[in-house]
# Entry
Amino acid sequence: MTAHPTLAVRIWRGGVDGAFRDYVVPRQPSQTVLDVVTHVQRHVDATLAYRFACRVGMCGSCAMTVNGKARWTCRTHVDAVGTRDRLEIAPLANLPVVRDLVVDMAPFFDKWAQARGAFVPTATRADAFARVPPSSAQRQAVDEAIECIGCAVCYASCDVVSWKPDYLGPAALNRAWTLQNDVRDGAAGERLRAVAGDAGCHACHTHQSCTARCPKHLAPTRSIAGLKRVATRAALDGSL
Ligand code: SF4
Ligand code: SF4
Ligand code: FES
# Structure
């Protein structure tokens, strides 16, 4: 058992003009931040709004701001996030607050669409399966960046998104990079034009907050650097 029998928790309540409210939650061994929020909702105040689905780090729906930093709450142990008997939980930054710990994810996913984040097939059902050697450079670039769960932790941690709300952001650009390296995809030119504009890859200041905070240990900064390279080359040879 832990040294502290209870945890003092501050949780954001209401919309953007809401305020923190204080709760006391019993400590448990291996307790996650999501366990704490769930305790408050089930045993203290059933009106508390929050999101989760898988509880095992796969769905990306449980991200919140915990002690000032964006995190996936189902895989974040209370013991790992600062002071052991105090916790502050707020909605993700850089997205509109709907209520309590729930943000509107629409702007985040709209930017995936703007970055042409959907695969555009070139083959038909009649064609054989594509063979993409795992050792090829393009396949390796895809493999390094593909495990994104769409949690928006990187987006909430990006200063450029805060300063420039139309910036496509690390997750959408990371997705675009995986598709630019997918030899089966047929929309590379259109996608490059979508990510090379003022709100695209060149707006990234390479601060690496996204890479530092991504719970899946992806490196959106590296993907964005790849897009910058390809976009610059295309601009120089006149193909952009
Ligand atoms: S590296 Fe680029 S995308 Fe990532 S947090 Fe910094 S500015 Fe944002
Ligand atoms: S890149 Fe990482 S932090 Fe960003 S949405 Fe994907 S999994 Fe989450
Ligand atoms: S609840 Fe699915 S990632 Fe946390």
Observations:
- The chain is about 35% helix and 15% strand.
- Residues 52-55, 57-62, 72, 74 surround FE2/S2 (inorganic) cluster (ligand 3) (CB under 6 Å).
- The beta strands are 6-13, 19-26, 63-66, 69-72, 86-90, 97-99, 102-103.
- The CA atoms of residues 124 and 130 lie 11 Å apart.
